[in-house]
Here is the input.
Amino acid sequence: MDYETHRRALDDLVRHYRPQLSQIAREGVAAIEESIPDYVRPHDPRYAEVVEKAVEYAVGHWFDMVADPALESDEVIAFFRELGVGEAREGRSLETWQRSARIGTSAAIAYITRRNRDLPLEVPGELVGQITASVLAYIDRLAEAVAEGHTEASAREVGEYQGRRRRLLELLLAGPGPDMKEIRDLAARSEWTMPQTIAVVALREREDVPARRPALPSEVLVGLHLSEPCLVVPDPEGPGRRRMLENGLREWTAVVGPTVPPAEAARSLDWARRGLDLARRGLIGGDGPILAVENLPSLMILDRSDLLCQVAERRLGPLLELRPRQRRVLAETLLACLESGFNATEVAQRLHMHAQTIRYRVRQLEGLLGEGIYAPASRLELHMVLHGWLALHPEAAEEQAGPVRTG
Here is the structure.
């Protein structure tokens, strides 16, 4: 087919079908709505009009391009990029739009094919193939524009969503007496259900494994953007919560603060960070996240190690003058005695040695510290000091420790 014949056939085709553009669009929309119910809005007739106008605009521009191959498409491309933004805001995936485009295109081609049988126009098979290829290439370009808009809107929405979540976490942790009305309003806009209780988890990257983003459900507010990373966990004592944290924080050192109402999140964070500092220094630890409530004595004692050392000097002075192994053995023995009511048999079982050895050590302790080790009024202080001092001075005692000399 020569060029002139080709152009005349295309011009005749456009001249005939351009007036039928609205009907072509209506049939395309009907086919889309029949196959994809998400595009049907009986309560909003304007929505159907918008969908129909979009189809009409796309088909009409294609007719215009057939009539004028040099025609610019910037305006229609911009329109369909914005359409992609709208699809993202409606919560529809690109796959849904692409399916609707295929259905609408098929309906438009079917309409033209059906009508061609009754036309005096002669459309050679070669031209039909070219037209079909042109339509498909055109739809692909529109699909690219929709994808661009959809991706931009999705990224923007994700960024805004994350920004609201971060702001919510920061407001919760801002300090005593946070503005709970502002927090509740922001929680609603962040799709975060306000819980009855929360716990704050202080985080620190482990040195032995590369840290990845914690794999946690969406109800957990993640504050990795903070200089001291943390999480806010709703309903922390609910079923499966501890296992969730164990699985999601395998690559992090984590300390879980006490459970508190949301208005007291800053208090939970304070205890969690104190615990994390002790964990960093190797003074508390364990497999998986460390619970602050299970380490309260250490948190209370070791948080003021300077004061602890002063009290230890006053209560344990003569014992501290011994060589490291000697003082460690006797300190562990005294702690076990305090926790077992000075029952030599029970202490021997705990320390895996003979009761006679325990009695010998107790006599040594009496010689060093006097009868004050039995005083009920000072037992709590002595117990706390021993706990803290042993944690701060982890010298290893020999497995088989013989009689300890005091001189």
Summary: The chain has three domains: 3-158, 182-302, 310-392. The first helix runs from residue 3 to 17. Confidence is low (pLDDT under 50) at residues 396-407.
